Every structure is written in C-alpha cells, then in structure tokens.
Amino acid sequence: MDATTDRRSASVRLPSDAASVRRAREHVATFCDGHAIGAEVRDVVRLLVSELATNAITHAQGEVTVTVRIEADRLTVEVADGSTRQPRPREEALPADPGDWTALDEHGRGLQLVQALADTWGVETDHAGKRVHFSVNPAGVAYDEHLRSPA
C-alpha cells in the first residue's frame, strides 16, 4: 500500500483484494477527520468510496488508487483502476421507502447510491484505465430526505 499526502489531497494505492475496501474507507475517513469534516459528511463519503472501491476491485484488473482532495466548497473522491469498462447504474430506481430496500439484490446498487448522495459524479477514461469520482459539499450533504436514517 503506497500513500501520498499533502495538505489538500491524499492518495493511496491498494491491491485488488477485499481488504482494500476497508482501507479505502479508512483513508477517506482519516482525511476527513484531519480537515474537520463533520461526521455526517464523513459517513456519506465512507459509504460512497466503499461502493466505488468494491466496483473497482470486483470488475477491474490490478491496483486501485483512491484519491481524496478538498477545495473551498467541494470534497472530491476519485477511485482509479486499470479497466476502461464504463460503469453503469442500474436502470430501476431505488424504492422510495427504505424499508423496501431489504428486498433488493445485494449487488448493482452502488452507483445509484453515488447518484443519490453525491452532489456530482462522473467517469473519465484514458489509455491507463478509468477514474470514477464524486464530490460533496464538505459543510454538509444535501440529499433526498427519504435516504436519511431514522432519528
């Protein structure tokens, strides 16, 4: 595991194994904590990087690089891998009632979560592979009310 860090960004290269998903979550959580990002935003970022890292490890070959960077009004996380295959969110929508989510397939919903919880997201490809990224407002996450946990 190789890591690079400066004040505004941090990257870590991870092997293509299941333990790397946990390390990706820890990487972004440590960065968020070091920049006084609130728990709600940190938890959303941890969830979303977990989804992207799982996709990269499941569908790509080789190492995965997780980069997190902060700007004045944006926290961006990028997961890069060696595959040029474009990820696609599932077509069917998440049920409006979170109580119905237990009936869903266990796989294929990660990009729907990214779409629902991130302010922006996207994919860039080049000869070396792809980078899937998302951004959130570090001051707070604006997302659909039905996605909030019960109080």
Automatic annotation (TrEMBL):
UniProt keywords, alphabetically: Kinase, Serine/threonine-protein kinase, Transferase
InterPro entries registered for this protein in UniProt: Anti-sigma-factor_SerPK (IPR050267), HATPase_C_sf (IPR036890), HATPase_dom (IPR003594)
Natural source organism: Nocardioides fonticola
Official protein name in the record: Histidine kinase/HSP90-like ATPase domain-containing protein
Span of domain Histidine kinase/HSP90-like ATPase: 14-134
Lineage summary: Bacteria, Bacillati, Actinomycetota, Actinomycetes, Propionibacteriales
